[in-house]
Write a structure and sequence with these properties.
- This protein is of the alpha/beta class.
- It has one domain: Metallo-beta-lactamase, Chain A (4-Layer Sandwich).
- 19% of the residues lie in helices and 29% in strands.
- It has an 8-stranded mixed beta sheet with strand order 6-5-4-3-2-1-14-15. Strands 7-8-9-10-11-12-13-16 form an 8-stranded mixed beta sheet.
Length: 279
């Protein structure tokens, strides 16, 4: 039935809207830097009053103050809570959460898990700051650095299990999981933010083998906050996952539909790359 379909729209970075019936969730909404090749319509996030924050980095929270409406409620941990308060978001719009919490938002049942953030070593950060791309794009660089530095993760990354219409969706806040946490396995779909340092293919493959999701949606692989972000080639991972599980990589604004029978399909002209099949 139409009302049992789950629609997942990816806008860029880790920004995703999940719709089921009359219920909607918005995860980590972010408008790209103007000089990015990625554009998100000014009203793209309109009409969704429930926001989940996976962690406090600027590309996950800095656009949120401009989205707040009278009925907006933002679920987040202490670090993004403090950052959003400094940005002018009223306490009435903030719902502080921690791992182990469960709560409902419309038809969605949400369980909060401790997450982890992919390694951001000092050497990697220094290499990025001294890169040719940064040197060639110096205009406004200090303002950008101040914006980035003001938004802290504080080792508070989260994962969310979203349960709706008999389906389970696991959202990773970064391409890493906590070693001391028992995550749900064999979920219908897992979000893998495919951005960071090191061998992303190896990291993602290891997470897949630990969690064994039936399908994966890649996010965060795009260049939305240059010169610090980059377009990431995920072909090595999609090739590795061939014959293991489906990997979906949408175009910006593309939608993945979870059908009532558990199958998935993408709307016409939205898939950028897809490899593998469900085992």
């Amino acid at each position: 039935m139409q009302e049992n379909k789950i629609r997942i729209t990816w806008y860029g970075t880790a920004s995703v809207r999940i719709t089921a019936g009359d219920s909607q969730l918005l995860i980590d909404p972010f408008f790209p830097f103007p000089e990015s090749g990625v554009s998100v319509a000014a009203d793209a996030f309109a009409g969704c009053s429930r926001i989940l924050v996976s962690h406090g980095h600027f590309d996950h929270i800095s656009s949120i103050p401009g989205l707040v409406c009278p009925d907006t409620l933002i679920s987040c941990t202490d670090a993004p809570y403090r950052s959003l308060r400094k940005m002018g978001v009223a306490d009435a719009h903030l719902h502080r959460i921690q791992p182990g919490d469960t709560f409902s938002a419309g038809e969605f049942r949400i369980t909060v898990y401790k997450g982890n953030h992919i390694r951001l070593g000092a050497c990697d950060i220094l290499k990025t700051l001294c890169s040719k791309r940064v040197r060639q794009n110096r205009k406004g660089i200090f303002k950008k650095l101040r914006t980035i530095a003001a938004c802290r993760e504080k080792h508070e990354s989260l994962c969310y299990l979203i349960e709706v219409s008999g389906r389970r969706i696991l959202i990773l806040g970064s391409l890493a999981i906590a070693p001391d946490t028992a995550y749900p396995k064999n979920v219908d779909l897992a979000f893998f933010p495919y951005q960071g340092f090191g061998s992303l293919c190896e990291t993602a493959a290891d997470i897949y083998h630990q969690l064994k999701p039936k399908a994966i949606l890649l996010t965060h692989f795009d260049d939305t906050f240059p010169p610090f972000s980059s377009d990431v080639d995920a072909s090595e991972f999609t090739e590795y996952m061939k014959d293991r599980a489906a990997v979906y990589q949408l175009r910006h604004g593309g939608t993945l539909i979870l059908e009532p029978d558990g199958t998935m399909q993408s709307e016409s002209e939205t898939v950028r790359a897809e490899a593998g099949k469900r085992s």
